[in-house]
Design brief:
- The structure holds 2 protein chains of 2 kinds.
- Chain A is mainly α.
- Chain A has a domain at about 85-270: MetI-like (MetI-like fold).
- Chain A is built from 16 helices and no strands.
- Chain B has a domain at about 45-100 and about 190-305.
- Helices cover about 80% and strands about 5% of the residues of chain B.
- Chain B has a two-stranded antiparallel sheet.
- Chain B is globular, with a radius of gyration of 25 Å.
- Chain B starts with a helix and ends with a helix.
- By secondary structure, chain B is mainly α.
- Classes of the chains: A mainly alpha, B mainly alpha.
- The interface between A and B is large, with 102 and 97 residues.
Chain lengths: ~325, ~300
């Protein structure tokens, strides 16, 4: 017994060439890995560095070749100017409303639908699930034009025209309902993906809990609210963050649904150079660069702040939400 | 209520299940199927929007003829978009798998690194990246070659010169520089795919790797013999996701054109363009599904 330990100690000593070789190899691998990781971190952080440093620069010194990342003259001029050009507070509030309300609607409806698909057996269940997949695969751009027209003359599926008084339709274009209403019926922006995530998560939960609840006389809705939903926090967090970010960053749907002066941020960014020209703030080709940088910075800041605060919770949730089952 | 009580448990449960998915069924009818069929009708008609509604007049193939024969850029955009898809998707998948493998390893500081690697999920807007990379390239041109972002113009020149000296023909050189220039953008398209791969990697049972290492397999061998085969369904999922997601990519020229027509209220052309593009993508998806089906059948055969 004791001899074996002795030989093990001897085996691990630095005099053994095999051990030395292993040590060198593993430290070389360690260095390689960190070089890779740091390079990639730089790649992912670069846009933020770039945006912050460029937008904080004084418009007059943008062209200074000696400035690398750290501005010599710090000024908030371009950010202030951009806030008024983009009508930032109003647009950001609108984008926030879209993102928050659609996310809440998606969380409620998609989790219910996902639960229905994961736990119950009914006729044509597989057919219905194929329809969910279909809503994922068919791109929204195909249905967006007619969806936008429908919202412009919205009649609640014909109900409004049955009523005797008032107009036949109401105009939902330029309101957040264009996003919230489809989300409420789990056919909004990427709702299919959310249904999928919830279904996969619920499939992984043990069935015993619900059976016990049913034997104790707990109804389906109450079982869901009291027992299932609290267990599904990781799935809810994952979907909430995805939904918020996707709604915030959506360009195509929001440019179709909003034609008024106050738009969500992404359609505004899409026309950034036009907006800057129109504002006529006396930019040259050089000073325009700080303006071009401060707009994306302003647009990206809210979701980024959200991410910084929820990041820890989010990365853990993703692992536990079992997206792929 | 009495009726409900008289039902057997299975019937009652099946109705409850249907009640749970009923929001989706309603939404599917009103916010998906109806607009879908309507936009299909728009392809073959002329749409006039008036103050109190819109009406369509039948045109037949006129819209399709227009976008292919008279529109100067559509066919070209279509070819560009689809061919971009063909070479970009594999790169995105390889990158995201690589990142996921890095993140799946245990090392000190992993939580911080993971938070940084997930940034593309949060800043998931191609628009912002487009502004940045356009701007960064302009910045390097102005400020000397200092802020060398991925795909800056000066690197491009150096690469081109190197390739020219090595005697490749110009078509190859253009192709390679195009790929090299877009690597930065492509790394930024890996967000969701990386998360899906990471979840997939974590679902591979650990004992498989232990058994392999006891048998003397190196990490390299177990990657090809364990990780990759176990990930096949997830690769398929990611492939489909990436192809579908390319629609929302801001750099997609077909979609840019669609948007432009939409802003000019040309519903017929918009619908025709997006349907044509969608049909092409659907064909590609079918090819992907068939290919994976064949791969699966082959592996089953070789095991039997």
């Amino acid at each position: 017994m004791f001899d074996r330990y002795k030989s093990m100690i001897k085996h691990r000593s630095y005099k053994n060439p095999q051990v030395v070789r292993d040590k060198i190899l593993s430290s070389v691998l360690w260095i390689c890995r960190w070089v890779f990781i740091l390079a990639l971190c730089y790649l992912f952080l670069f846009p933020m560095f770039f945006l912050i440093s460029t937008s904080l620069q004084d418009p007059s010194s943008v062209n200074d070749p000696s400035v690398i990342f750290i501005p010599k003259l710090i000024s908030l001029d371009s950010i202030k100017e951009m806030i008024s050009i983009l009508n930032y507070w109003d647009s950001a509030l609108l984008t926030l409303e879209i993102a928050v309300f659609s996310t809440l609607a998606s969380l409620v409806s998609c989790s219910l639908v996902g639960y229905g698909f994961s736990r119950f057996n009914f006729k044509f269940k597989n057919v219905f699930f194929v329809l969910v997949i279909l809503t994922i695969i068919v791109p929204r751009q195909v249905i967006l034009p007619s969806l936008a027209l429908n919202f412009q003359f919205f009649d609640f599926g014909g109900v409004l025209s049955l009523l005797p008084e008032g107009s036949d339709s109401i105009n939902l274009v330029n309101t957040v309902w264009t996003f919230v209403l489809p989300s409420l019926f789990s056919t909004g922006l990427r709702s299919g993906v959310f249904i999928f995530i919830f279904r996969q998560f619920f499939l992984g939960l043990p069935k015993d809990l619900e059976e016990a609840a049913r034997i104790d006389g707990c109804g389906a809705i109450r079982t869901y609210v009291r027992i299932i939903a609290p267990l599904a926090v990781p799935a809810f967090v994952t979907v909430a963050l995805f939904s918020f970010v996707w709604h915030w960053n959506d360009l195509y749907s929001s440019s179709m649904f909003f034609s008024s002066e106050i738009k969500p941020l992404m359609p505004l960014l899409d026309n950034l150079s036009v907006l800057i020209d129109r504002a006529d703030i006396g930019t040259t080709a050089y000073s325009a660069r700080t303006y071009m940088a401060s707009a994306p910075l302003l647009a990206v800041l809210p979701p980024l702040i959200l991410y910084i605060f929820t990041q820890r919770f989010f990365t853990e949730s993703i692992e536990r939400s079992g997206i792929v089952g | 209520m009495k009726k409900l009580k008289r039902m057997s448990l299975t019937t009652r449960l099946s109705w409850t299940g249907f009640a749970f998915i009923s929001p989706f069924v309603l939404g599917f009818l009103f916010f998906f199927l109806e607009p879908l069929l309507q936009s299909l009708r728009f392809v073959f008609s002329k749409v006039d929007v008036t103050l109190d509604g819109y009406h369509t007049t039948w045109l037949g193939m006129e819209n399709l003829r227009y976008i292919f024969r008279e529109d100067a850029t559509f066919s070209q955009n279509l070819v560009t978009s689809v061919s971009n898809l063909v070479w970009q998707v594999p790169i995105i998948l390889v990158f995201s798998l690589f990142f996921a493998i890095i993140l799946n390893q245990k090392f000190a500081g992993r939580t911080v690194v993971r938070a940084i690697f997930f940034l593309p999920v949060v800043i998931a807007s191609g628009l912002i990246l487009e502004i940045i990379s356009g701007d960064a390239a302009a910045g390097t041109a102005l400020a000397g070659d200092v802020v060398a972002a991925g795909g800056s113009s000066s690197q491009n020149d150096a690469l081109q010169e190197l390739l020219l000296n090595s005697g490749l023909n110009s078509e190859w050189i253009n192709g390679i520089t195009k790929v090299a220039n877009s690597l930065f953008d492509l790394t930024w398209m890996t967000g969701i795919q990386m998360i899906i791969f990471l979840a997939g990697l974590q679902s591979i049972p650990h004992p498989l790797y232990e058994a392999a290492s006891i048998e003397g397999a190196t990490a390299w061998e177990s990657f090809w013999k364990i990780t990759l085969p176990m990930l096949t369904p997830i690769i398929q999922l990611n492939l489909v996701y990436t192809i579908v997601d390319s629609f929302t990519d801001v750099g997609n020229t077909v979609m840019q054109q669609v948007m432009k027509n939409q802003q000019l209220v040309r519903y017929g052309w918009t619908a025709a363009m997006s349907w044509v593009y969608f049909v092409i993508i659907a064909v590609i998806l079918v090819v992907v599904f068939v290919a994976f089906y064949l791969i699966e059948r082959n592996t089953e055969k070789s095991h039997a």
